[in-house]
Design a protein that fits this description.
Helix content is 52%, strand content 16%. By secondary structure, the chain is of the alpha+beta class.
């Protein structure tokens, strides 16, 4: 069934539903017509029973003299005595009683309907008790059911002929409607078969109608745009990574070749090995950074949360980069209260803050200030320096991979801020660059992913 085209499946389902509806409608009409005919016959029998009762109470006449009671419309009548013997009857009836003894006893007690076959004709009888001629009699009037049967039989024939015809026409219409409704899907499928990585920019045809299929086409085109952007980012990542790897590998090869040119010179060999070690460290760091970003993209960046004191983390970073800052004639200050705590992965948090401080020492000026503040359940970690900061054109994509404010590409691979953003997102937070100022804000939620709550102290810090 799964291989049957969807338009056929829709048509079969529609045909089944229509068959049920038509069958139920036909049965309803058939029963309603039968009930209406029965009511009409019963009303006619009651009227004739009243006429026969009145005629029976006239002692000077009888049913045999009432020829009008035996017409195609009025049927026939019979009067039974107290013993069930026929006293009077319309012409044409045999002398036998139309009722059995059981039916006669029932008719003496109350008015009753009966059906039976008289000769070769199916009839309906109405037996009514009557007081006449000084005794308790029973009048029986009857009418043929032939016309009722003919009417129902004619309706059955019409339903058996018209029902299947209506079902076929409705199914054909359903198939055409399903085909028309699915035609935009077929066009989208045909176009999708031609779209590949070698044909960027192509989109699915979207119908003009604002219906489910139109909205599906719009969403699929949006998905194609996102996939193209992701593919472009992957291509850019491969290109940039290749470029970043090429430089240290070329330097490493050059140092090795220089060492091999003069293997007897100990100073030259030592210098070559030291340079090779530096380039190896650079390659190792680049590989670690790319691996971290790949794990972040796959949602596999592990965060081991523990309760950490924010001031201790900031002081650790200040100590770690203190000698480097002093050698450049700069200082690192910490402005944070000791009570503020946070549930976070300390190692990853130090890695993110270290990247920000290194970026400030490399590209900024003056004092680097590390501060923190807790506002509305969010702990903000600020790294600020006195340099020119991020330009408006760079602040929007500062956290993209391999993005550099210096177009020449000097001063790093451009992965530091991307790693900061990845670590912040892994904690459920954000990293933002303040446009027009040399400041980056790392905002982490005070509530961890497992529902535990950090100390929520709303502290405004004095950066002096």
């Amino acid at each position: 069934m799964s291989r049957v085209p969807i338009r056929v499946r829709l048509t079969l389902a529609f045909a089944l539903a229509m068959a049920v509806v038509l069958g139920a409608t036909g049965l309803f009409l058939y029963l309603r017509l039968g009930s209406a005919l029965d009511r009409t016959l019963n009303q006619g029998l009651r009227a004739r029973a009243a006429d026969v009762g009145a005629l029976t109470q006239q002692a000077d006449t009888g049913l045999r003299d009432a020829g009008s009671l035996r017409t195609p419309d009025n049927g026939f009548a019979q009067v039974l005595g107290a013993s069930g013997r026929t006293i009077d009857a319309t012409p044409g009836l045999s002398g036998g009683s139309l009722l059995t003894l059981t039916e006669f006893a029932r008719a003496r007690a109350r008015q009753s309907f009966f059906e039976r076959t008289v000769g070769d004709e199916r009839v309906r009888l109405l037996a009514t008790p009557v007081h006449a001629q000084g005794q308790r009699l029973v009048t029986v009037v009857g009418t043929s059911l032939e016309q009722r049967g003919d009417a129902l039989a004619d309706l059955r024939r019409q339903l058996l002929v018209g029902g299947p015809a209506a079902l076929v026409l409705a199914s054909l219409l359903g198939y055409l409607l399903a085909a028309a409704a699915l035609r935009p899907v077929e066009r989208m499928g045909e176009r999708a078969a031609t779209i590949s990585a070698a044909s960027p920019g192509r989109r699915l045809p979207v119908p003009a109608a604002d219906d489910e299929i139109g909205r599906l086409g719009v969403r699929l085109n949006d998905m194609l745009a996102r996939l193209e952007n992701a593919l472009e980012r992957e291509r850019s990542l491969v290109s940039n990574a290749s470029h970043e790897l090429r430089t240290p590998l070329a330097l490493l090869k050059t140092e090795i070749e220089l060492a091999l040119d003069d293997p007897t010179s100990a100073p030259a060999l030592e210098a070559a090995l030291r340079s090779a070690a530096e380039e190896t460290d650079r390659l190792s760091q680049l590989a670690d950074d790319l691996l971290l970003l790949a794990r972040a993209d796959a949602g596999e960046l592990q965060i081991r949360r523990s309760r950490v004191v924010v001031r201790e983390v900031l002081e650790t970073i200040a100590t770690r980069f203190g000698r480097r800052a002093a050698s450049a004639g700069r200082t690192i200050e910490v402005a944070a209260v000791p009570e503020l705590e946070l549930l976070a992965d300390r190692r990853r948090l130090e890695q993110a803050l270290g990247n920000l401080v290194e970026n400030a020492l490399r590209h900024g000026r003056g004092t680097v200030t590390l501060s923190s503040v807790a506002v509305n359940g969010v702990v903000e970690l600020h790294v600020h320096d006195e340099g020119d900061g991020f330009g408006p054109e760079f602040a929007g994509h500062a956290f993209e991979r391999f993005s550099r404010a210096d177009a020449s590409g000097s001063g790093g691979a451009g992965l530091g801020l991307a790693i900061v953003a990845a670590i912040a997102q892994a904690h459920g937070g954000t990293a933002t660059a303040v446009s027009g100022g040399a400041e980056v804000v790392l905002a982490l939620p005070a509530r961890s992913g497992d529902g535990r709550v950090d100390q929520d102290r709303h502290v405004l810090l004095d950066n002096a």
